[in-house]
Amino acid sequence: MVYFKDNYSPSGEHHLVILDDQHQPIEKGTILAVYAPLIGGRNVNPLPKLTNSFYLDEWSKEVSLNKNVKAWTLRATHHELPRYQQSNDLIPLRTLGRSIVEGDAKWDGNLQFIEDFHYTKGYWEWTENAFCEAWCSLTNTLLTSAGELSISLWDLHDLAELSTTGCLYDEVVPSALELTGADEKGGRFIPCSSKYLLYAYDLLRGVDDDQSSNVFIDQWVKFWSKKAIKYHLPPPHKEKKTVRPKSTHNPLGDITTHKRWSTAEEALFEKLCIEENLKEKVYLAAYLACWLCTFVLPGKDVNSIRPSTFKMASMMANGRRVSLAILILTSIYKGLNIIASSSRPARTIPSFPVHFVYAWLASYFKTHYPIWQGLRGPKMTRFSGEGGAKYYDPQEARKQIHKAEFVFWACNMIVKNRPFKFIDNGDAEELDHDYFIAIHSSYLTLRQGDKFIIEPYSPHRFRRQFGYFQDVPGTSKYDTRAAFLEEGLRYWRLYILSKSSSKAWFPGLPTNTKKFCSEAYKTWWAKVHGTFLDDNIACLISPKPTKIIIKRKKHEDEQVDGENNPPYAPVPSIVVKSNSQAVPVEASKGKEDKIQSVDASEESETSDSWTTTPPPFGMGLKGKQLPQPPAVSVLEGESYIFSHHKEFLQKMWSDLLVKISNTPVAFLSSIEDDVSLILKSMKNFHKFDITPVEESLNTFFVKVRAYDEARSLSSQKLSRSLHEQHLKEAKARLQDVQAKASEGASKVQSIMDELEHVEKEIVALKGRRTSLCAALKEQKQLNHDAQAKVHEVEEDIATLDNTTRCNS
Question: Between vectors from CA 323 to CA 319 and to CA 329, what angle results, nearest 5°?
Fold first, then answer.
């Protein structure tokens, strides 16, 4: 027997306690945190009246291209009208790739995801990197040389057959009252399946007193599934292939009709006290809970079952339709943004359903070999199984993603025989209504505990994927990424709102989707992103580490190589006054050495080595041990000011010595007044006695003045005959120089004649080069036209496939 009890901690936190019997101590039971329900609970507040702040009467707008072709562009509510003439609209869009090129980030390994996904190393890492490098967390779009793309709600619907409409996905543990209670009409708040799943969860946890312990997926599967295993893991892949292998080791997709429960299954139901009429729903709910934790929304607890999914799994098993596409896309955007915003993306381990990203890449960029025969299930299964991913090297993968030369822009759009006007009046087909929701901009939501994750959704930025004419998208009015429960629920209700009477034209497939954009968009795009990533592929493959130079003074106990010990000239000492006695302090400690700081990757505990630049003058750190951080000291005002004054005077004195030593002897007397001014300034620091320095400098300048007088007298005594001798020597030197100049002029003329001859030959070669380049360009154009024809035929095939599926 199992008992459910509500418990409140002294701080007011609400918990559901699962007990084996009513006398069991609470701390021995399974304790689960309870949050306020938004659906399916006794304490659910009635939904307030909704004011649609994102309403548009027309979500599409006709544009004039030519008389024969009609085209529409897509409008948005959370973006301001284009202001691309202003500087704010021309700031480059930030991506992970731009951060890597500018030295603010680096991969430092391969991406890791919290998901049971396996692939052959070398086949997929480069494509993952290339995709994440081009992801912009500000816009939730993929930036390519040809413009923006993104994963849309309709992509999830088309690839995985996930619903956009339905009830909110409210993943919370219910209270005991909600779990067992009923409303005034006798209807249960939550299906009975939930309590049986919680009972099974409690049994699997056993008597473990650690409330943080989890129930793993394999435990859950073994507990519920008593049938023989049909599928096994595929053998390891050993070689790179240019085509997909015949055997993918995929499940066949055949689901046999259930006949009757086995003896082991009946024993399980009897152990949980499940009634006969609830066995199928409980069994299905147990599977759906596993599916939600592994496929729909993987959590941070790797391969663990989350009891918070039991409520929604039970509702789905009872036939309740749930809006899964919205929460999945929110999770994908959030996970990609964590990677794109990190300075060490390979060290982030985000939890989101990355397999949908793989399916999207396979559909738009053809990164996988498809399965065309014997297919059952959603479209994304075409790209699953062993040997599906194509091989790319670092450069090929980045060209494939960043350049986007052969992207299937509209591979998942609805294709009709002619443009279709949709009116949201409640009479449209379900497929068209889901498509309409997927093309209008808003904010996506995902509940996590007592808050909502919010991600902006802007299909007008990648409207070519829906067949619309692309123009400058404008700028976001405000960036919202989180909200409390009430506000998050409002965002969700606004997005799935139906019967709004809004209208939109669904266009046909453009002739050339890639070029289906305005000149203003091309100009704007060239300024905010353009071919930045494509131009910096070499830097993305082998980024240069950022070097931050940090100066530090040598410690007194730091050893210096005797042979390379730099010579220091003797200098006067500054005397520091300290209460009763004067303490001499060295005026200069010598030049500061520089050491290169290590970046964040080398600061981690897993680093293998430190890299430093060679110290100047041959000085080296003793040994290879890591430098120790300085000890923490207590801030003392007087001492702090004193040490900084002393450091300032030492620096001033050192610079003054350099200035004097660099001044020619004949001009030393000209700086005497400046030196006197500096000494006067140094006297203002009363705790420091600079009298020895002042006396030394006075003596020095007395000798300078004596030197100037002696030099003046010597020049006056210079005889006339000496002047004549100097003049004669100068004239002789002039004749020699003139002769050499004449000889040099002859050589220059000879070289110029030869150069003229060479230039004529260059002109002839340039003419030949021009003709060869023209021939090469013509041949390249022929090759490009042939590839474009192949691309068009492939798009026609995809379009026909979509049309056939929609008509069926």
Answer: 145
Q: Compute the half-sphere exposure of residue 131: CA atoms within 13 Å on the CB side of its CA.
A: 26
- CA-to-CA distance for 651 and 628, rounded, in angstroms? 26
> In sequence order, which residues have a C-beta less than 8 Å from that of residue 588 and are 6 or more positions away?
568, 571, 650, 653, 654, 657
Query: 791, exposed or middle or buried, with CB in 10 Å at 0-12, 13-18, 19+?
Result: middle
Give me the chain's average pLDDT, please.
79
Copy the structure tokens of residue 320. Answer: 């309740």
Q: Can you give the pTM of this predicted structure?
A: 0.68
pLDDT at 6: 93
In this predicted structure, the answer to whether residue 201 has a pLDDT above a threshold of 70 is yes
User: Going by DSSP bridges, is the β-strand pair 574-578/688-689 parallel, antiparallel, or unpaired?
Assistant: antiparallel
Q: How far apart are CA 30 and CA 19, in angstroms?
A: 7
DSSP 61-115: EEE-S-SS--EEEE--SSEEPP-TTSGGGGSPPP-HHHHHHTTS----S----SS
> What's the pLDDT score for residue 634?
46
Q: Contact, 488 vs 445, CB < 8 A? A: yes
Instruction: Report whether 40 contacts 193 (CB < 8 A).
Output: no
SS3 247: coil
594: how many CB neighbours lie within 10 A of its CB?
Answer: 14
Please tell me the distance from the alpha carbon of residue 506 to that of residue 434, in angstroms, as a whole number.
12
Strand, helix or coil at 402?
helix
CB 38 within 8 A of CB 18: no
Please count the CA atoms within 13 angstroms of the CA of 436 that sit on its side-chain side.
28
User: What tens digit of pLDDT does each residue of 394-426 get?
Assistant: 888 888 899 988 899 999 998 877 899 999 999
pLDDT tens-digit map of 329-388: 999 999 999 999 999 998 888 889 999 999 999 999 988 877 755 567 788 888 876 667
Distance between CA atoms of 282 and 191, rounded to whole angstroms?
9
Rounded-to-integer distance, Cα 555 and Cα 589, Å: 10
Q: Determine the straight-line distance between the first and last CA of the chain, rounded to whole angstroms.
A: 51
Reference 138, options 189, 83, 79; nearest CA is 79
CA-wise closest residue to 162 among 325, 301, 273: 325
Of the candidates 590, 555, 583, 552, the residue with the CA atom closest to the CA atom of residue 569: 590
N residues, the chain: 808
Place 722 in a pLDDT band, splitting at 50, 70 and 90.
low
Beta strands in 611-747 (DSSP E): 688-689
Average pLDDT over residues 523-550: 78
Tokens of 312: 């929604």
| pLDDT tens, residue by residue, 445-482 | 999 999 999 999 999 999 999 999 999 998 888 889 99
Cα angle: 217, vertex 167, 497; to 5 degrees = 140
- Both structure tokens of 725: 């001798």
